[in-house]
Amino acid sequence: MRKANSEDGGQPSIGSDNGGRPAVADDSDDPSDAALIVGIERGHEEALAEAHRRHGPSVYGLASRMCDRGEAGDAEDVTHEVFLALWRAPERYNPERGSLRNHLLTRAYKEASRQLTINAPRGLRPRSGHGSGPGGRVRLTGDEAWALLAHLPDAKLRAIVSAYFGEHTYDEVAELLRQQDGAVKVHLQACMTELRARLAVGAFFDKMGGGVEDMADPETTAELTDNLSEVARALFAAGSVADTLQAVVDQAVAAIEGCDFAGIFTVNGEEVTTAVHSDPLVIAIDGLQQMTGEGPCLDAIGQRTTVYAEDLADDSRWPTFGPEASAAGARCALAYHLYAEGTLGALNLYARYPRAFGATDRAKGLIFATLSGLALGGARSHEDEHRRADNLNQALATRELIGQAQGILMERERITSDQAFDILRRASQHLNVRLREVAQDLVDTGDRPATRTEPPPNGGEGQPTGRSGTRE
Amino acid sequence: MVGNADARLDQARHDAHLSKGEFFLRYFALGGMSTSLQVEAILLGTRLPSPHDHDVLAHALNERFSELGGGRPIRYSGDT
What we know:
The complex is a heterodimer.
Chain A lengths: L32 H9 L3 H22 L5 H17 L11 H20 L22 H8 L5 H11 L4 H8 L3 H18 L3 H7 L9 H20 L3 H15 L5 E8 L2 E7 L2 H13 L3 H7 L4 E3 L11 H8 L3 E8 L3 E9 L7 H55 L3 H15 L3 H11 L27
Antiparallel strand pairs in A: 1-2, 1-5, 3-4, 4-5
Chain B lengths: L4 H11 L4 H10 L6 H9 L6 H17 L13
Helix pairs in contact in B: 1-4
């Protein structure tokens, strides 16, 4: 049926087969959401019905949980309004900004909030008893978390989160938000903290389009979240950059079921090197990519995205590398762009068998790569701090040594501190060695340093020793 | 006297590829007694260093130039 022919003046009947309550969605992926939107734009009611069948339960679920009086009528109204809005203005959905489901949930959230404001002046609050976890923390499903994210109070934070899950780099996010790179990192780290606390892992699955039904199960989700918290702790506790890289690889092999071996490529200009690996085979496979100039890990870096090769033995993207890698023992590869202040490289997961990484593994890997990037960024700053502290300690030690040398000269020759420095400085110039070394020599041997134009500091006593000093 | 040599200290620091922080740390290691703000003021030309302070700053730069394989181009206060 065409839009223009709708009996009720442009409003299609939605879910009328079950009295407004949405039907349970099946797992059918055909036609795609994008095709459905095209259909809706062209006025095909069947397309809207299919979209409703597919996403109605989620929308209805969120709406019903948001309505504190728990009256079914409210949730049905919200669901109806959401799909009506989709029918009237399908162009408002922008596929580049996320999945159709997230778009609809965001709209549901807005609509439910609006209805609650009208109907309940006390404002929005969660239905009592729903989803309260230990310590009073509200547990959210992935769908709810996405809807919630869309309504974070800080607009910038929200923008950053969406950019974040779009796998942008800090630089790109900074560019998007016209912010300094440093400010973006602070926001992103705040986001991670926020997300760890509030966002169930299901959200990632939705984003990945994995459609893993069992992930909606709170127990599974909680288990995975706990598991990832442990991973995060291990990564952030590693300390140095080298230790963090090793921790990433070790944790990846341990936490990602399909992964048999893993490694990290690092990029330094044109040069790509295998920084760490869990198995020598990784070096061989990485070497093959460099030799042939093609491969999933190179693509992950080049395209700044995630690349999945289900079966390297038969993948037209890498006609040379694929079969060779497969023969060497890697049939399946999953490569993530890894970034910390610019492109760092790629996290590469390999498996011995084809199609080893399911939707769960792929989503886990994405979270993993994200955490790894943050941990590596942190480790780098940490090392910078250490370097600064080392420099300061060295400066203090030099200052103390020079002070000692000055003291010896002052005491022995009855001169001022400035005059003592002058003697050391002239010796340094004359011998062309650092002043520090002149001072060290004086403290070690007690010999007066040689100067070319010896000023008589105190009645001309004290002759140059003619020591040659040590050149650097 | 040093004359307008101080005005050239900051240029020399640039030429020696030293940040202000790195320059101050080298000056400090040599026993310099001015604070980083005072050194910055000297580099900006808004503060006149004592001849000794000038010599410590000059020596920090000369050691750096020497490391880079050059000579010791910065004059000291007593140089004629």
